[in-house]
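SEQUENCE-TO-STRUCTURE ENTRY
===========================

Backbone structure tokens: a row of integers, each naming the local backbone shape at its residue.

Task: work out the structure tokens from the sequence, keeping to the layout shown below.
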Amino acid sequence: MTKQRLNNIFFFLGVAAVVVMLFTFDVSFVELWEHLCHAGYWLIPIIGVWIIIYGINALSWQAIIRSRSGHEADGLSFWRIYRLTITGYALNYATPVGGLGGEPYRILELSKDVSRQHAASSVILYAMMHFFAHFWFWFSSIFIYLALAAVGDLPINTAIATVLGIIIVFCLIAFWIFSRGYRKGLVVGALRLIGRIPGLKGWSSRFLEKHSESLHNIDTQIASLYAEDKSAFYRSLLLEYLSRIVQSSEVFFMLLLFGIDCGGGFTGLTLTYLHSILIVSFTTLFANLIGFLPMQLGVQEGGFVLSIAALGLSAALGIFVSIICRVREIIWILIGILLMKLK
């Protein structure tokens, strides 16, 4: 199958997913219009901030590509990486088990500029970095919550402390798994793990035997990023973490829209932004635990409602935030799908 035909398949898959999402929206179009009218001009910064977020993501991925591909990637422009970043995330949002669409598409397109092995290792490394930064974001959010609880801004009790403790253990286990992946590679081990699933042992063995050399080369490149280019590794990680902090701006804008600013002034706005970080952190944790649904349908909404209610805010605000974020996702999915056809 030609690359152009695969590109068209990804394109029509994305269009079909958007159509399905529009007709399975959680509220009526009348209610949706009311929420959009309530948001008003705040929709501009809510949607526009993602130009910056995707730019940061692209810089993070670029650091990995440059490190892994060397002079081979000299002709690869930032605009092309930026475009593939947006389109990749659009396909991830639109397809079940985020990654079944976006990552293969990125490998397909990037292999036009660098070797297929470098394309595959760069995409896998960036996907690993994306999730690794998630865990650091969730881990650091725990200490933000504890700091705010210490000054009396947020509640703390046995139940909350237990949940926070579970998240800490969850993150520490993830850090250990990622550290092994970055030291020894991940692909071969993951395929061997898949081979333990009933019914997949034969497929896994055949795939490993057929592509053994390529898979081990990819693992070698994954392991060499941390071993040989720590500056690129930490630069990519820091940028991915920064993108989560910037992402919290859209919730911050919506809190201000509802007049929630913790008393205003520098201190009040800082507290409001910290609350926004906690809302995004809890919601993304909840959504990623059940990531096999396209756009995490229903999961993201529940996450926003629960996280906002946990901070003592109204459930109605949680519903509003989830709906506006869903609209923003659909708009950026459409942009990403259209960029697939932009040469």
Observations:
- Residues 61 and 126 are 6 Å apart (CA to CA).
